[in-house]
Amino acid sequence: MQRFALGIEFCGTRFKGWQTQQAGVRSIQETIETVLSKIADEPIIVHGAGRTDAGVHATNMIAHFDTNAIRPERGWIMGANSQLPKDIALQWIQPMGEDFHARFKACARRYRYVIYSAPRRPALLWGHWTWKKCNVPHSNSKVRIILKLFVQLPVNPISLCAM
Asked: Which domains does the chain have, with CATH numbers?
């Protein structure tokens, strides 16, 4: 049995998050497992370093899977990317020892929150960002507190909702 680590990039706009859910609910994990299972000709379970919520994107999410299938690394990448939807791509694959686990060996996670400050919605970011008109001037003390907290990540943005 061989274990592989993956670097995954995805635009989560059309998905209900990373984790496999009930039938008929699109997830990144399930989509990748389906494709890798076809390539391996055996059921594949992908373990992610973490989970994402619906609509969240990732540029280098780490995951791993185990397989008995023997394929060159290029074959896994090219085969998967040719079958994955255009909003998911495997960026790299690396053979790992059996002691590697994407979730438990993760040593860091990095998040980026973008605050787009404009009176009108942006057309170019449609479908990729959340936009809400805010009539609060930047000089407002609550806005300054929020922006200062974002600079001092990690911050749980949910905790800012009560401000």
From this structure: 2-96 (3.30.70.580), 111-163 (no CATH)
